[in-house]
Write a structure and sequence with these properties.
The structure is a single chain. The chain is an alpha+beta fold. The protein contains 3 helices and 3 strands, in the order αβββαα. A 3-stranded antiparallel beta sheet has the order 1-2-3, with no helix packed on it. A hairpin with a 4-residue loop joins β1 and β2. α2 packs parallel to α3.
Length: about 120
């Protein structure tokens, strides 16, 4: 099917299909790679999250799911609307803290999205 990427079943803490089957990619890499991907940014309405697809140098198909300021802000707004105590994100140190103007803008937007 289009845009369906199956993870191999790798047992990890009792879950049959988990992050043990994939790898974490730093946000800086995602932001640089998404523009040259096969698909550009795609949006999953169920997960409320962006993803993209690419083929590596040997032709292997990959799918990368990530959060961006829009998806984070939706999650933060949900938390606020439900009166929950907070929200967190996975590895804020994976953002791009270089002095490049685009990187600074992307990183600032991610942190701002945590506050609805």
């Amino acid at each position: 099917q289009d845009h369906v990427c199956s993870l191999p079943k790798v047992p990890f803490r009792g879950a049959p299909c988990s992050d043990a089957a994939g790898t974490q990619v730093p946000y800086a890499t995602v932001m640089k790679q998404v523009n040259s991907s096969l698909s550009g940014v795609l949006w999953d309405e169920v997960q409320k999250a962006p993803f993209y697809e690419y083929k590596d140098s040997v032709g292997q198909f990959h799918q990368v799911w990530f959060d961006d300021p829009h998806s984070i802000s939706l999650k933060a707004a949900y938390v606020k609307s439900r009166g929950l105590r907070g929200i967190g994100m996975w590895n804020g140190n994976s953002l791009d803290y270089s002095r490049e103007a685009v990187a600074e803008q992307q990183t600032q937007a991610m942190w701002q999205a945590l506050t609805p």
